[in-house]
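Hi R.,

Here's the chain you asked about this morning:
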Amino acid sequence: MIKEFRVIRILGISGSLRTASSNTVLLRAATSLAPEGVDINVYGDLGDLPHFNPDLEGSEPPSVIDFRARLHMSDGILISSPEYAHGVPGVLKNALDWVVGSGELVGKPVALLNASPRATHAQASLRETLTTMDARIVPKRH
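And the predicted structure, written out as tokens:
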């Protein structure tokens, strides 16, 4: 009997556009430390998404269609985000807004990372947003 081997596909999303972002570095570390059978790809086009506009529903730009497809094809999502002014960076919130109505995160496991222990407000805000979107938040383990 041959056992089928299935790769688990995780999409990593950094909430920062900075080239040297510690949150992006954290995702890249997760990529290199992923066990066999787990493939983590870091999404690098967050800054290419246009401002969310519900009037574009049905005629979304290619960057939005690509983002939605990558989310859809992933088995889970790993988000590492900084905190700006006690909140989620606008670029990350914008990306999430693009998938509220299309539902790519419904039931999808999402784990949250953060490179700064002081960034608790953004984490709480992300949890609230993702819970509202019916994502399945992976609980923090101590």
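The first strand starts at residue 8 and ends at 14.

Let me know if you need anything else.
M.
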